[in-house]
Amino acid sequence: MPKKKTNKSEEIFISKISKILSITKNELLKKDDFSKIEGYDSLKHLEIITQIDKIYGKKIKKIGDLSKLTSVKKIIKQLNK
Predict the structure, then answer these.
(1) Which among 27, 28, 63, 80 could disulfide-bond with 18, CB atoms 3.0 to 4.6 Å apart, if both were Cys?
(2) Domains of the chain by range and CATH?
(3) What residues does 71 pair with on adjacent strands?
């Protein structure tokens, strides 16, 4: 299956999340579910939400339950609605 192209803001976002979680971008995309990543907790989740706000701005207001954003795929899906 061909790899889906990511846009520039998605690339930046993935890079920032991988730094927050102290793993490589490839590991992040492979595991995808944050709960499977050692060191992930509620504070890391808040840091991720903060990055979404910084990169995507007002789009975050359209997302109802921020606690359900527990993977890169889920976040990008919500932001692309």
Answers:
(1) 28
(2) 8-79 (1.10.1200)
(3) 33
Q: Which one is predicted more confidently, 23 or 61?
A: 23
Residue 29 tokens read as 């995309």
* Integer Cα distance of 40 and 42 in angstroms: 7
Question: What type of residue sits at position 46?
Answer: L
**Residue 3 DSSP symbol:** P
Cα distances from 53 to residues 8, 13, 68, in angstroms, run: 16, 10, 16
Amino acid type, 41: D
The span from the CA of 3 to the CA of 37, in Å, is 23
Give me the percent of the chain exceeding a pLDDT of 70.
93
Instruction: Please tell me the distance from the alpha carbon of residue 45 to that of residue 63, in angstroms, as a whole number.
Output: 15
Report DSSP state, residue 23: S
